[in-house]
Specification:
Blueprint: E1 2-3, H1 18-37, H2 50-56, H3 61-82, H4 88-132, E2 139-140, E3 143-150, E4 159-168, E5 171-182, H5 183-200, H6 207-219, E6 237-245, E7 250-256, E8 262-265, E9 268-271, E10 294-297, E11 303-307, H7 309-312, H8 324-329, H9 336-350, E12 360-367
Parallel strand pairs: 1-3
Antiparallel strand pairs: 2-3, 3-12, 4-5, 5-6, 6-7, 7-10, 8-9, 8-11, 11-12
Helix pairs in contact: 1-2, 1-3, 2-3, 3-4, 4-5, 5-6
Length: 372
């Protein structure tokens, strides 16, 4: 099953928060009444500028301008009651209040335009990522699968986390990865890796050849100029590529700079650390290394958890990282879907305000038999 918790719902840009509107109007009323009742040498009119200034922080330009107009009317009322509207002191207060109200109304307009642009960019990036990350099938051969993508907090940019799985004549191949960077560029790089994986996973004879194909795709010159894209090491992708044969009770793993998967067995979470990890995709041209797969036992009832660094780098209010192995080991065991529900709830509870600082993805794989 594929879980995609949406971003928290947001109010429309510029839509006033009604409870907060009571604050500037209450401020205007209090200052006006106190100023009228104050001794002749006490003038509280300058405090009225706070009303439109506060409104501009949460409301749009129309409401900000309206509050400013009310504040000016209140200042004129004070002037008429206490002396006259043409009194020099009150005249300067009224002029200053008008100018400040115009200024903060312009500020509210610019903020509203900026928020609309950010909302549009975020919507495009999120839609692009949802197209890139296709839902995984619940069952592939002798495996049950579940996946989850947790978007970062609304203020953060969309990241480049990726995962995919495909069937081959003899088993299932999977990838999970994390592209360096954020935003639409990272989503595009993730689409490049996933496209290369989906095109070659069922064609390449062995896992090293498949990973070499992915490396070639990432390192290729996208502009066709024959020159490397950007500075050396500027673009890379960490990845874990797995192969699970239908009949052999093992899995083969090549890790390209990615956090080790966890094997959940008998109440323990065992990191699948490879002896010879490869550099991230896009960096192997700078390091003389091969892609050597390593085999690990993977028996019926076992669950393997794949994840990106957004999970293990999530911090609590005191700055402590999320202890994924310990929390995964506490899972009572009821299938991969239940595992991800358990970890998602626990991860969001661990993070202040239930918001992550970086996107996070997890894939859980359970072997339920020796064939399909």
């Amino acid at each position: 099953m594929d879980h995609r918790p949406p971003h928290p719902s947001h109010r429309h840009v510029g839509e006033p928060r009604l409870p907060l509107l009571a604050v500037p109007f209450a401020l205007i009323a209090v200052v006006t009444v106190v100023d009228v009742l104050a001794p002749p040498d006490v003038h509280l009119g300058p405090f009225l500028v706070a009303a439109p200034a506060v409104t501009a922080s949460f409301a749009g330009p129309w409401m900000t301008g309206f509050v400013g107009a009310v504040a000016v009317a209140a200042q004129v009322t004070v002037a008429v009651v206490r002396t006259t509207a043409t009194d020099l002191n009150h005249t300067f207060q009224i002029i200053a209040l008008v100018l400040i109200s115009i200024f903060v109304t312009l500020f509210a307009h610019l903020r509203e335009v900026h928020e609309k642009q950010l909302t549009q960019l975020r919507s495009v990036a999120q839609a692009a990522q949802e197209v890139v990350l296709r839902p995984l099938r619940d069952r592939m051969g002798p495996l049950r699968l579940a996946s989850v993508y947790l978007a970062a907090e609304a203020e953060a940019q969309i990241g480049g986390d990726l995962y995919a799985a495909t069937r081959t004549p003899h088993g299932t191949r999977l990838i999970i990865g994390d592209v360096r960077g954020k935003g639409l560029e990272a989503v595009g790089d993730a689409a490049l890796v996933l496209g290369a994986f989906r095109a070659a996973a069922h064609q390449e004879a062995d896992l090293p050849t498949l990973v070499a194909h992915l490396e070639a795709a990432v390192a290729a010159d996208p502009d066709g100029t024959g020159e490397p894209a950007g500075e050396p090491g500027e673009a890379f992708t960490t990845a874990a590529v797995l192969e699970v044969p239908d009949q052999d009770m093992i899995l083969r793993l090549i890790s390209c700079g990615h956090p080790p998967p966890l094997l959940l067995r008998g109440g323990r979470a065992i990191p699948l650390e490879v002896d010879h990890p490869a550099p991230p995709l896009g960096l192997t041209q700078y390091v003389d290394t091969g892609f050597a797969p390593q085999s690990f036992p993977f028996e019926p009832g076992d669950v393997v958890l794949l994840y990106t660094d957004g999970v293990i780098e999530a911090r609590d209010a005191e700055g402590a990282f999320y202890p994924l192995p310990e929390r995964a080991a506490d899972w009572p065991g009821d299938g991969p879907d239940a595992l991800l529900r358990h970890l998602c709830a626990d991860l969001l509870a661990h993070s202040p305000g239930g918001s992550l600082g970086d996107d996070a993805a997890m894939v859980a794989i359970e072997r339920i038999g020796g064939g399909a």
